[in-house]
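[Meeting: bench + compute handoff]

Bench side (C.D.) handed over the final construct sequence. Compute side (W.E.) agreed to return the predicted structure before the next meeting so the bench team could plan truncations. Sequence as handed over:
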Amino acid sequence: MKRIVFARTLVRKEKLTPEDVDVIVKSCKKGIFTKIKGESLPSDSSLIKIYTTTIKGAQRIVILLDEESKVGHFLLFRNKNDIVGKNISIKNPVFKKLLQKYLILWDSDMESDNFDIIDLR
């Protein structure tokens, strides 16, 4: 992943602190992730899940990865004991519904240039 895009609406929805953003960036730099299934994703993209541990405990990060440009788009950051973080899978109806909602919000932010980009190099 070359850089990560943070849609401002999703940053607000996930209540990210500057420390959370730092954790996400550091975790993305490591390049260790698992691809997961998703629905209604943009073409040439995939969902990836990243495991990380913070002072707050075990966390899960979900990124929409543009396979062509190798740019990641932040979607969510959850504690592993959260109802979504516990089972980040399209088979989890709570995750599936949230993913659909967040993809719409992400698309809206991309269209309106309401995002920040962080270079991972």
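W.E. noted at the follow-up: The domain at 3-114 is CATH 3.30.2310 (YaeB-like fold). C.D. will use this when planning the next construct.
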